[in-house]
Amino acid sequence: MDARFTDEQEEIRRTLRDLLDKRCGPQELRAAVDTPAGHDRALWTALAGHLGLPGLALPETCGGVGGTVTEMALACEETGRALAPTPLLATAVLAAPLLLALGTGAQRAGLLPRIASGGLTTALAVPGPALATALALTGHDRRGQWAGGGRAGGVQARRAEGGWRVYGQVDQVLDGHSAELLVVAAHTGGFARSRVLLFLVRGDAAGLTRVRQTALDATRPQGRIQLRDVPAELLGDEAADVLSALARLGGTAAACLAAEAVGAAGRVLERTVEYVGQREQFGRPVGSFQAVKHRLADAYVQVQAARSAAYYAAWAAAAPAPGAETAGSLALAQALEALRRAAAEGIQLHGGIGFTWEHEAHLYFKRAAGDELLFGPVHRLRAHAADAAHVFEEAGT
Description:
Blueprint (H helix, E strand, L loop, with lengths): L6 H17 L2 H8 L7 H11 L17 H14 L5 H15 L2 H12 L5 E4 L5 H4 L20 E6 L2 E12 L6 E8 L6 E8 L5 E6 L8 E13 L7 H35 L3 E2 L2 E2 L4 H29 L5 H26 L11 H15 L2 H11 L9
Parallel strand pairs: 1-4
Antiparallel strand pairs: 2-3, 3-7, 4-5, 5-7, 6-7, 8-9
Helix pairs in contact: 1-4, 4-8, 4-9, 5-6, 5-8, 8-9, 8-10, 8-11, 9-10, 10-11, 10-12
């Protein structure tokens, strides 16, 4: 394994950081999250038009750049550093890979170039608070019971004249209130022979109601969608192995999320170190006290370890390499812990101002807590990775 990044990968990082420094400062960030969509459409247009960010990991035949998970993870590290409220995670990390893996030739040709150009935003709708289970990050449900199990609740799909109809409700959909296309997981076939399939639902479909939810992390907007006999298009065909596709997606998504968390942790730690070097107490900088140095040093080591784990997870998912199925979960657990630690230290060491609404420190802490609610918790990420690696099984069993 060559751990060095290529010149092209370093250029992606530099260019994206420069753009976000200019277009996504604290004031722009707060203004963006207060819009109905929850993100800056002009910034998204710039990221798509100038950098091709939505199509970074899509093949050139689909209008993309032709990169891998590694390039996408580097991009997520920079967007995480700025806490940039963009549709990148929902569109390019969660939905687009499913369209690429399962879509028919016509679906890929009609949708992926529009995603790559930034002209189409998408969102993955998984019923219940079960996104981490659906992506096989905290467990692996081989029957897809998280989608409703064929019983009342969840989202159900049935055949209708001229196609399919879906019915149900999903309460936590990243960018679900604003995405122009929804990829909805639904049960079909009733309880006895139920199975999970994915369906495409247009954002303006009849019978679809969407409302933005109040989320802990305002920079990660979520929506509740209600489907009342809504016309839908089956993604791919009925023979598609949706659960396996979602499990594969979980590894790449976890690597990108880990890189994003590492970027956020690195940035809040940088700001804290800068502040304690300026703030004085008892006639000397706070950062000169040994206890403060130790706390920051411990946080730095934790962030750097998480960065290494995130890079390895991205490389393993792109290769793929042995252990790729557990590398993502472990990297995400380590990165979320590092972000929570760095953000907590930042809030405390900034003193009174660190606890105020006007300061940005609380946004980083909320990102860590919000991601753990959506994709964790950390102990379950690690427990599932240990189960997948048969860590606690006795020899010969």
